[in-house]
Structure formats: C-alpha cells, structure tokens
TrEMBL record, chains A, B:
Its cofactor is Mg(2+); Ca(2+). Mg(2+) binds at D244, K264, T268. This is fumarylacetoacetase. Substrate binds at Y140, R154, Q251, Y255, T370. Keywords: Calcium, Hydrolase, Magnesium, Metal-binding, Phenylalanine catabolism, Tyrosine catabolism. Ca(2+) binds at D138, E210, E212, D244. Residues 138-433 form the Fumarylacetoacetase-like C-terminal domain. It comes from Tepidimonas aquatica. GO terms for molecular function: fumarylacetoacetase activity; metal ion binding. GO terms for biological process: homogentisate catabolic process; L-phenylalanine catabolic process; L-tyrosine catabolic process. The keyword Oxidoreductase does not apply. Pathway: Amino-acid degradation; L-phenylalanine degradation; acetoacetate and fumarate from L-phenylalanine: step 6/6. InterPro entries: Fumarylacetoacetase, Fumarylacetoacetase-like_C, Fumarylacetoacetase_C_sf, Fumarylacetoacetase_N, Fumarylacetoacetase_N_sf. Gene3D superfamilies: Fumarylacetoacetase, N-terminal domain (2.30.30.230), Fumarylacetoacetase-like, C-terminal domain (3.90.850.10).
C-alpha cells in the first residue's frame, strides 16, 4: 500500500505560481498524468503532468534528460503516446517519477530552467485516452445503488442474495470509451413499454448518467495466477472520473439473462487526468462493513484492506441544459457523493477479478459502478434521483428533468481533502448529448 | 453478400498434392488465414494461408512481390504479425487476394516457382491469435441452447420474453482468449450449493464446454453510425471455431443481475485458421424463422438475410480423457450440430450490435453463443448433454463424465459440404484442462 511521504507535504510550494491558486485541482501534491498535445497542430500525443494551470510535457522533459535510474526509465515510458508502458513498470518506478517531478517543480529547484521550457498551458491542450484499454470491467460496488436500482427493476427482490458475498462485475465495451469532453448521439434501440405487445426501435427516452470512478491497472498478472488481496494495490496505477451513460429503457428490455449490452455500449466518458494511487495516500480511510453483514471470504479480506482500504473522494454531478448554457447560467449540482460509500474496495475488485485466473493487463480499466451514497441527494444516477422518472428535478432555469434531453451537458468532479493534507482534484469529466440519428 | 465464383469451383486442383488428399480441411477452395511461424525458432509472426498440409508464408510471398494492385495491398497487410490491417481493408481487397492465391496455387500456375519456396509444413508451425481483439462480444443465438439452459437456471421461465426480438449478447473478456491448442487451469471461484448458508472459494466442479463459432469483424463503423443489415456482411472477415469454457457452479451464483463474469473469463479458445466469409459462399442457406414467431423488427430483417442469411457448417465436439490418451484411444464424439440452427444470423448480430451507435473495429470478435441444435445429441455443452449433470455420458474407456475432469482434452471441428461444392474444414480447436491451483 502506498504510504504518505514528502511528496504529500501540504507545505510544499511550486515555482509554477498557479499551483498555489485557491481551489486548484492540481497543486504540487497531486501530479496526475494524461496524454496531451497542443490543440490543432497535429502534434504527436505524449504524456503530461498537470501542475496548476500548466502541463509538464514529458516528451520534451525526456529529451532534456534530467534524471537517471528508475525516474529516467519511468519518464521514458511516460513520454510515449499512451501510458501503458508506464503503467506496466509498477510502483517503484511510479514513485521515483513522482518524487523527481515533485523536486523539480518545487520552489527553488535547480531544475527549474530545465523544466520551464517544457510547460504547456492547459488552455492550449487537448487530450486523448490515457491508455490503450485492452479490457474494461464495470463493477457494482455501491450497495445503495444496487438497492435503489434493484427496487426499480425488481421491486420484490431489490438486493440479490449474492451481493454481500460477490463483488459483482461484468465486462464492458472498450471501443466506445472516450475522453472528456465527449459528445455522443442519443442511442436508438429496442424499447418495449409494459403494455405494448411488441418492442419498437426508437431513440432512448430514458437516457441516464452514472457517476463512477475508473481504476487503471498497472502491472498485470499471467493467465491462471490470481493476485492476492495483500498485493492487489501494487497493480493499481491510478484513478479517473467515469460516466457510464445508460439507456434505461433499452436496458430494461435487453438485460436478462446476460446483463446490459446496447444500453451501455454507445459511449462511456472518462476524465483525462489520471490521479495516481500514490497521490491518494493521505485520503485513505478505514473500510468496515456493517456488523451484522457477513465477513468477506478470506480471499477478499485482509488487515490492510480493513484499516485503510477506502479512499475519501468527494464527488459531484452537475447538469447544464442547452437553455442554461445559452443564457450563461452555471451548471447545477444534482448530486454529491463519495467513493468511500462503496461496499467493496479497489483491492477487493482486483483480488476478485483475478481469483479464477483471469489475467489483467496494464491499461485495463475497472469501473467502480455507480457511486450512490446512503442519502437521497447522494444518488449518482437520474433514475435514482427522480425515483424512476416519477419526481422530476427542478433546475434553476425553471426547466425540469427526469432523464437527459438533447443538448444537456453533464459535468462530473472529484476532489480530496483531509486534515494535514493538501486539497487535490480530478479536473472534470464532461459529456454532451447529441440528438439521435433520424429513424 | 459474397457470391460463388471461380475460386469455389470444386474441379480446381492445386500443385500442392496434399490439397487433394481425401478429407483434407484445406483444399484450394478454402484458403483460410492464420498467424504463423516455424515452431521454436523465435521467428517473427506473420500471416499464412493453409493449402493441404502446407502453409503459404505470406511474408515470404510479399517479399517475392508477385502481384500488383489490390492483391498486392492485401498481401502486404497479410504479411504483418496480426491480421487487423487485412481485416480493415474490406471485401474488394480480400477477394483480390483470394483470387490471386487461387490462381497461384492451381495446377499449372506460372507462379509455382515463386510460391513453392514460401511453403512451410503445418507440422512445423505454431500459431498466434489471428488478430489483436479489441473487443469480444458473445451472443446467444441458439434458441435451443437458450431454452435448454433456461430450463436448468429458471425452470419456471426458460425462454425470456425478449429472446425472439433481441439478438441477446454481452461483452466478454479479451485478455484470456487463446489460440488452440490452449491448456488452462480449472478456475477457483465462489460456489454456493443450494442448501449451504454461505458460499465457499473452491475449484469449479461443473467445468463445461460451449461449442461456438467466432466471427472476426472486418472494417469497422464510426461511433454513432449503425451498420444497416443490407451492408452487414461487408463488415465480416471470416469465422473460427470457439470454445467458451464455462464454470457452471460459479456462473449460477454470480450471474444475477449483470451476467456471467468469472464463470467465463478464465479462458476462451479459438481455432487458428480463419475461414473467410467468401470461402463460405457455396454453403449459404435460407434463413426463415418458424411461421408463428414474430417477424424481426425492420432493422434486423432483409431479403438477402432471409434468402441466404444462414451458413450450413457441420460442427462436432470430441472428448478425450487422460486415460483415453494414455492408452492411445481416439477422442469420442459427444455432440454434432450445425451453425444453421441459430435463431439469429451473423448479419443480424452485426446490425444489432451497432444499431445504438456502438463502434465495431477490425479484429473484433463476435461469438455466436453455444450452437445447440434441436435434437438431444446436438446439444453443444455438457450441462445440456447431461441434463444438468444428472445423466453422465458413457465413454468408450468405460469412464463417465458429467462435467470436465482434469486432463480432459476437448476437440472442436467444423466443415462444410454442399452439392456442387468442395468440402472445406476449419481445422481443430483444442483445449486441455489443467488442475486448479492449490487452495
């Protein structure tokens, strides 16, 4: 498990002045990675690190050759057009790179003259997916979401008997994962209203959001060799925001018996900045389940997981309709929640995924599932917030929403705060609904 | 839709004598592609075409530069370490390569002296996966399998109401797909017997086979732009045998509500030779559903699909236990079936997969689902053949089997025969069960 070290010291200051700006997501204690380039110049993609409102271009820094050893090896990998090679290296390399960057970006660093020419303003940048995602798995780790949505799909049987034993997950679609900001068409699909004799092909009328986080896998495991929970976090590179857009009407008709398919695979949006697992060390929290719940099976249990398996990440969902955007209104927060409300930890997801021998690979993405919390305002999907579309949300524009309308923009945010630690953030994960294709 | 042409002429003979051997899978009318190299020499992987008991090394042939135009472009793509570039080119290129190879391999060909040095005996070859598989989707197209297995999992409700409307499918795991021959460990997983209070982690005791076919996607579609059924087959490169190994006890406990996960993702085996869609043209058959079933929705319907949407591919499952192998006994056929028994065609799978905007990419793999036919001996999984493990199979060795035991070898075969056409085959898809890891 990554521990707090000098790179997390809240007193650290960077010679990049904007890293000290109040409320910045990217102080020197964060140092998330993305795949970046200058917008509109056809440049090659390469890794970058956020600092304040700037980006350290890691390909340029690699050419400047500032370090030796593990940090240099990690920098070479991070200069590539995808971060898979860096993800494959593992925690010792990631830590060396973080420490080297932290030193180079501190006030008074002797490397300032080397690093400063490698800065690229975030305002001039565009982003690609951080990794080639070989496989994408979506879990279902919020018992609150599972219960809320179970009530809507199966009123007599909301939480299935396996839920408190099995970290439920399923395989998702890789090809349609896009980086924020992503605009996507409202999907058409088979929809059957309850009293109709037959389904029709029509644009979804119940298009929803799902606020999740996405975990990027670091080093993988060979086929047939499970990752024990004690070592699971050595295989976790970092975390992004993830919006698992869902067409509830398509889902309701198609999902039995093999799970969601077209209801989910038309688009999935992730935020560009991968906040490393090490950066999250100051925000780890104990992870205990309710006393009257069954203890996890041994392969899902461990002292470290109980002591600090959770991560305290504040999350929010904001909505801005086309009308709100047209008159310059700010987005409206419709939900706030936290990663710590999950029933299963990231380490448990990794241990479960591999217990049967399934091989993970660097760059694989693990979604947490919709991160609804215990309170009604902590529901991380519209179907929960509006009780299945029966109680519309009131927006400051006077509009109402049950599900998403064309032109709606959804903004996910995440941030961490803790006593004795800096505030760090995840940037934004933005998606916009385009009209369906004409039928 | 690919039509029958001179390359399918059953009278064609090759100067490779073994292409005329009785019962060969690889006469000159077949010409399937694989990724190959000489075994044990650390050579680079490259494309190859089977002819009799030989392989035309397409990298060597590319260096010999025998053609111009589309055939030359296709050959350059096929000489790569994966077939994705060839798959991306589309039917005109594939046809040009097939025609050029057919001419070059015919008796009397002027190119014999160019091609003969490029031959590599299959006996000396090893195989890799034919493509980088970006996404793997598994369908559920046999109504017989869906009904048989539905009776076991949901006796009161075997065939769900969506089955005859929706080509049910779900996303599978790419990382654990291997090429035949694949040996894999019996998975461990959570198993809960009906009268137990809690599940246990244990090796699967109900390890099963699923005989399927796998369809490799050719050119993809952009996100948000569906492929209409009339053009669906232009996006189909070719077909392999596929064994979707399944742990039924893990599946029964984990699969609700999001579908199979660890029950399937420990291994999936495909045959190395991709039989092209064009090679299958002589074996196309009409595709009509029972008169009292609902007609497909328009996006899944079309004249060409009804006239010849099916493919008549004979399929078999053979089993050889370790004891049978030790005393030199041949494998025992436990099931024979046919691709034509599906309820949905390959074109319908493609049209449905993309109707909501999901993008397919070259090299994506679409499994048909377990290809059980209407008769009991046509059941393509042990759970069906043994009625949920209640009626063991009797083997010629005197052994009995409900589910797979350690050391069991499973061999899938497929072949096509039709009046006025040659017999072509798929080779074999072989997998062997290794013991589970110690607990």
């Amino acid at each position: 498990m990554m521990t707090v070290n000098e790179t997390h010291d809240p007193a650290l200051r960077s010679w990049v002045a904007s890293a000290q700006a109040p409320g910045t997501d990217f102080p020197i204690q964060n140092l998330p990675l993305a795949i970046v380039r200058r917008r509109g110049r056809g440049e090659p993609w390469r890794g970058g690190v956020a600092i304040g409102d700037q980006i350290v271009d890691l390909a340029a820094l690699h050419r400047a050759h500032p370090w030796e050893g593990l940090a240099a090896e990690a920098l070479a990998a991070a200069a590539q057009p995808k971060l898979n090679a860096l993800m494959a290296l593992g925690p010792a390399h990631w830590s060396a790179l973080r420490r080297a960057l932290s030193h180079a970006l501190r006030e008074g660093s002797a490397l300032r003259a080397t690093v400063e020419p490698c800065l690229l303003p975030q305002a001039d940048a565009e982003y690609d997916l951080p990794a080639h995602i070989g496989d994408y798995t979506d879990f279902y780790t919020s018992v609150h979401h599972a219960t809320n949505i179970g009530k809507l799909f199966r009123p007599d049987n909301p939480l299935l008997p396996n839920y408190k034993w099995v970290p439920i997950g399923y395989h998702g679609r890789c090809s349609s994962i896009g980086v924020s900001p992503q605009a996507f068409r409202r999907p058409r699909g088979q929809i059957k209203v309850p009293d109709a004799a037959a389904p029709v092909l029509a644009p979804s009328r119940r298009l929803d959001i799902e606020l999740e986080m996405g975990v990027f896998v670091g080093p993988g495991n060979p086929l047939g060799e499970p990752i024990p929970i004690e070592r699971a976090e050595d295989h976790v590179f970092g975390v992004v925001l993830l919006n698992d857009w869902s067409a509830r009407d398509i889902q309701a008709w198609e999902y039995q018996p093999l799970g969601p398919f077209l209801a989910k695979n038309f688009a999935t949006t992730i935020s560009p900045w991968v906040v490393t697992w090490e950066a999250l060390a100051p925000y780890r929290v104990p992870f205990e389940r309710p006393a009257d719940d069954p203890p996890p099976l041994p392969y899902l249990d461990g002292g470290a997981n109980r002591r600090a398996g959770g991560v305290d990440i504040h999350l929010s969902v904001e909505l801005r309709t086309a009308a709100m955007a047209a008159c310059g209104m700010a987005a409206h927060t419709v939900a706030t929640t936290n990663l710590r409300y999950t029933y299963w930890t990231v380490a448990q997801m990794v241990a479960h995924h591999t217990v049967g021998g399934c091989n993970l690979q660097p760059g694989d993405l693990l979604g947490t599932g919709t991160l609804s919390g215990p309170e009604p305002h902590q529901a991380a999907a519209l179907i929960e917030l509006t009780q299945g579309g029966k109680q519309p949300l009131e927006l400051p524009s006077g509009e109402r929403r049950t599900f998403l309308e064309d032109g709606d923009e959804v903004i996910l945010r995440g941030w961490c705060q803790a006593p004795g630690a800096a505030r760090i953030g995840f940037g934004t994960c933005i998606g916009t609904v385009l009209p369906a294709l004409a039928g």
